[in-house]
Write a structure and sequence with these properties.
271 residues; alpha/beta; Lambda Exonuclease, Chain A; 9 helices; globular
Length: 271
């Protein structure tokens, strides 16, 4: 079997997973791991670049985080709230926000609930209106190199305004952090392959956890435009290929170096 045929076979398996999950994209990565379907993702590449040992713990040993950091669960819930909002019509003045607020109220109380509610209120003031919602939590897979497993991802939001496509990735945290453009490079390549040579704009919408909106000294929301050109994909593909070679070396030798900023690694207590 040729490399391309092998990649095509894996691609078909991944697409079957996507089709079977429907709107439940939260399960996408879990199912791929559970069924041992070869794949690459932005998260894998960025993790192995950050620290090989973290990659070994997370993706090879599959060591669970105990306890799961609250910022993981809060961030996931917020993504689910936004997905519910856009799937329900994306109108801040109708029932689109009701389900999201109910999800927050039933999942958290106290300070975390307040932070989630504040973030959602900020979202209502900055949501993408006057747009056609093309896809929400869009899981995808594509072959970028026959010598590599397919690359997968989940795009938080795709909207269209006239002939222009707008891709949005939602970020949450206690502060705003510089973003890695590789993630958006992968998304852009998927859009180019799916929709052709269309006009696109790309944004990271950052939400900062705050307890009291009337007392903040710096913004709780930031919309960051990402500027990409045709040369960016060449750079992005090179990073994916180099990351894959590192990953294969770790798998074959079962050895991984420790480096990176341990204080901001969720595995620093398990390392």
């Amino acid at each position: 079997m040729t490399l391309f045929n092998r990649s095509e076979e894996i691609q078909q398996k991944i697409q079957a997973v996507i089709d079977g999950l429907g709107n439940d994209s939260d399960r996408f990565a879990d199912v791929l791991r559970e069924e041992a379907i070869p794949h690459l993702s932005y998260s894998q590449i960025s993790t192995v670049e950050f620290c090989q040992h973290r990659f070994w713990l997370q993706y090879i040993r599959m060591q669970p985080l105990e306890p799961v950091p609250e910022y993981f669960t809060k961030g996931r819930l917020f993504h689910q709230c936004l997905a519910s909002f856009y799937r329900s019509g994306a109108d801040p003045h109708n029932g689109s926000k009701t389900a999201a607020l109910q999800m927050i109220a039933s999942s958290y109380d106290g300070e975390p609930q307040q932070q989630l509610q504040n973030a959602f209120r900020i979202h209502l003031e900055n949501c993408w209106q006057d747009c056609e919602v093309v896809a929400v939590e869009k899981a995808f897979s594509m072959i970028v190199d026959p010598a590599l497993p397919p690359v997968v991802g989940v795009i938080d939001l795709i909207v269209r305004r006239g002939d222009k496509f707008i891709l949005v990735d939602h970020k949450t945290g206690r502060n705003f952090f510089p973003q890695d453009e590789l993630q958006m490079m992968i998304y852009v390549e998927y859009i180019r392959r799916t929709y052709g040579d269309v006009t696109c704009e790309f944004y990271y919408d950052h939400y900062r956890w705050v307890n009291h909106l009337d007392r903040i000294r710096k913004p709780a929301f930031q919309r960051e435009s990402v500027r990409l050109n045709t040369e960016n994909w060449t750079i992005g593909l090179s990073r994916i290929q180099q990351g894959y070679h590192l990953i294969e070396s770790i798998r074959k030798t079962n050895r991984a170096s420790r480096y990176g900023k341990c204080f901001c690694c969720p595995y620093h207590g398990n390392c």
